[in-house]
Amino acid sequence: MAPVSADAELIAAIAAGDRRAFAELYSRHSPWLLVRLGRRCADAGLVDEAVQDTFLAVWQGARKWDGRGEVAAWIWGIGVRRLIDNLRRRRPMAAAIADLVAPARREHITSAEDQVLQGVEFGRLGGALGRLSPELRAVVEATVLDGLTTREAGQLLGIPAGTVKTRMMRARAALREELA
Amino acid sequence: MTTIPTIQAHGIVRSFGRQRALAGASLVAGCGVTGLLGPNGAGKTTLLRALATVLAPDSGDLRLLGRDPGDPKQRLEIRRRLGYLPQDAGYQRGFTPFDFVDYIAILKEFTDRRARHDEVRRVIALVGLDEVRNKRIRTLSGGMRRRVGLAQAMLGNPDLLVLDEPTVGLDPEQRLRFRDLISEAGQGRTVILSTHLTDDVAAICGQVVVITEGRTLFSGSPAELVGLAVGHVWADAQRGTGAVVAWRAEDGRYRNIGEAPHGADLVAPSLEDAYLFLVGTPATESAA
Amino acid sequence: MSTPWHADSTALSTYAAGRADPVTAASIEAHLTSCGSCRTSLGSAVDPARVHAIFAEVTERLDAPRAGFIEHTLIWMGVRSDAARLLTVTPLIRGSWLLSVLAVAAFAVIAADASPAGTLAFLVLAPLAPVAGVAAAFGRGGDPCYEVAVAAPYSALRLLMIRAIAVLVTTALGVLAASLLLPGDATVTLAWLLPSLALTGLTLAASERVDPVLAAGTVTASWIIAVVSVRTEYDVHSMFGSTGQGVFLALTLVSAVEIWRSRDRVNSLRRLI
Questions:
Q1: Cα separation of C39 and A31, whole Å?
Q2: Is B114:B162 a contact under the CB 8 Å cutoff?
Q3: Is residue C246 scored above 90 in pLDDT?
Q4: Are C173 and C126 a contacting pair, CB within 8 Å?
Q5: Is A87 within 8 Å of A39 (Cβ atoms)?
């Protein structure tokens, strides 16, 4: 089998106008982007649009990638902001917003494997995160995991930026208490 | 089951002022690739233009796809099933292959944007230009540009494809690639191409028509054309008397074509030999 | 940073289905950012039709010819998208042509002064702008794929009209803008309109038979000769007065009729390359 190109090489080829490299990058990164964005927005149509806009932005901005870090992280940065833009413009129903902050509503069982996963990625933090209330956890995910600014997190969750700050403070306090 | 031949041309006459380009040319062609062979100035382009419905003959019988191109309504029906690549195909400045083929697709009545773009992508992929479809045409090689021309001709899956000297000016490798494309295109449709290179004909044509001075000299299979020259090609140390055409071959001896003298060293004729025998003037000389 | 473990397929499909608990999901997401093989495994858990549909849209956006400002304006005005495309492809809509028209028109204005001779010069030159436009749009340079276009089913007359409109509008706008700067009588600034239509109509009608550049040249020469000969015999202003305008109107109508009558002629090559 032919050697597989690293993502960074694909980006370089895309910057030079290589459509085939672009198609390859798309097939590698669109599935996870769809799922990850789908966890932040229940409207599949908006998610599809965001993914579409993301890869168009990747095509146009490939030259501007600074070459540092993971390509996936760069793509996520573009994707989540595109989603926020679309959300702001479209103002989804309250139900969709509610889904954002309470994914815990969905049925899940923390299996033994899951606990191991949590433990490996976040150490003791994982368990503590799990014990946070949904609104606080959503804020932590948006700012820490998704890398959004306070303002962007507010736009994603449909709450004012001030509320984001307050909740972050409360979350930090709760986590500190747990881990102390 | 007999089917009506796609092209039925008999006694086509066409003049330009005092110059007679076609003086009673005939051609019948159906499915597969037909080669129109002849020296420059023989009237190939004029005949092809008549077949592509862009030029009306002065007189003669012409039926394309069973219809009369002289009647405007029927001509329109022919054009809807026709693809044409003229000799000096140009393109708008600054266009990419996609832009250009899309423009022609509009002229071919593809009104729905999305369907049109899908069709454009299809024909561009057919000629292998997928990767460069958004690069400006002027940055592409001659072979690629010719393929852009073929792509537009293939829009709408035409039943009749008219190609005027499609391989001229291409280097050997490009010519081979283009021949492959033409061969493939000939599956299931009628392709007529003009050329002054017998190589093209030998490689891909199931039927060959030889035309000089506006008249059809021969129509049949390449094998039949070769058959005409059997017994008329011989090798000798010098130019043979009675030779219409003679030239020095690789081995140092002369290859002669014409009326072979008694006891001459006959050689098996090639398609080129047969063509020269028929036409009497070297085709390659007049190919500037 | 490479992690010693990878999310197994069960965890991934649970995650893909949206049924993973929040923290596990967050773990997986953090892991996926740096692990290509897990990303690939996730790929099989996502609906391929959805993935393909989105890529088809992306492809379409990347391929589609960039519609310029003018094309968008035309579509906004109600012109069908393919007709708008045909219009904008006519080189006359290029910025460079518009600029040159404006430059010529400006020159004509500057050369013209308030004197009758100056105004006359403008009125004589202005109608020649669209005639030159016809030569440019219909001649070799303006129509590089002319032969292919003739063999296409699209109505040749319609294409002719579309191009003619493009010519008239772009040159007329340029000249109109310049004429507003002309000193003198307001009615004078419109006196070139009918002559423009008449000369353009004649050029188009002739273009159905001969090479457009030849047609344009002939019409231009005839016009100049007509103006010069009228000047020596009659009051020149009657040429652009109501009688004159009547003549131009008649010429326009005659040209229109002739273009319609000979519309089948444009269906074959009139210019042999």
A1: 8
A2: no
A3: no
A4: no
A5: no
b/e C104-125 (16+ beta carbons within 10 angstroms → b): bbeebbeebeeeeebbbbbbbb
The length of chain A in residues reads 180
Closest by CA to B156, choosing from B95, B84, B71, is B84
Q: How many CA atoms lie within 13 A of B218 on its CB side?
A: 24
- Residues C73, C79, C83: CA angle, nearest 5 degrees: 105
Look at residues C216, C236, C214 and name the one whose alpha carbon lies nearest to residue C171. C216
Residues B40 and B210: their CA atoms lie apart, in Å, by 12
pLDDT digits (tens, 9 = 90+) for C36-87: 888 988 888 889 999 999 999 999 999 987 777 878 888 888 888 888 888 8
**Residue A12 Cα distances to A16, A58, A59, A74, B14, angstroms:** 7, 11, 11, 14, 58
Q: How far is CA B52 from CA B68, B83, B264, C63, C153, in A?
A: 12, 8, 46, 30, 12
Q: Is C30–A130 a contact, with Cβ atoms under 8 angstroms apart?
A: no
Cβ C63–B114 below 8 Å, yes or no?
Answer: no
Cβ-based contacts of C159 with chain B (< 8 Å): 107
Separation CA C209–CA C200 (nearest Å):
15
Q: Of C260, C273, C272, C85, whose CA–CA distance to C160 is shortest?
A: C260
Residue with tokens 């000249």: C175
Minimum Cα–Cα distance from A22: chain B residue? B131
Closest CA relative to residue C33, chosen from A100, A131, A147, A5: A147
Task: Write the pLDDT tens digit of every residue in A61-75.
Answer: 999 888 888 899 999
Three-state secondary structure call for residue B99: helix
Give the model's confidence band at A33: pLDDT under 50 very low, under 70 low, under 90 confident, else very high. very high
| CA-to-CA dists, residue B159 to A101, A153, B105, B274, angstroms | 60, 59, 16, 31
> Of B129, B131, B140, which to mutate for an interface test with A (greatest number of A Cβ within 10 Å)?
B131
Q: How many residues does chain B have?
A: 288
* Rounded Cα gap, residues B36 and B195, in angstroms: 6
Q: Which of C1, C6, C24 would you mutate first to test chain A, the one with the most A CBs within 10 A?
A: C24
User: What is the tens place of the pLDDT at every residue in A146-179?
Assistant: 878 888 888 888 888 899 999 988 888 887 777 6
pTM comes to 0.83
Residue B3 has which token pair? 């089917």
Pairing of strands B190-195, B233-236: unpaired
Say whether B130 and A17 touch across the interface (CB within 8 A). no
- DSSP 8-class letter at A104: G
Residue in chain A lying closest to B133 (CA): A19
Q: Is residue C49 classed exposed, middle or buried when 0-12, 13-18 and 19+ CB atoms within 10 A define those classes? A: exposed
Name the minimum distance, in Å, from the CA of C69 to any CA of chain B.
17
The vertex-C247 CA angle with C244 and C253, nearest 5°, equals: 145
Tell me what the mean pLDDT of segment B122-134 comes to.
Answer: 94
- Count of beta carbons in the 10 Å neighbourhood of residue B250: 6
Do residues B105 and B119 make contact, with C-beta atoms less than 8 angstroms apart?
yes
Strands B233-236 and B243-248: unpaired
Euclidean distance between CA atoms C107 and A50, whole angstroms: 52
CA-based Rg of chain A, rounded to a whole angstrom? 18
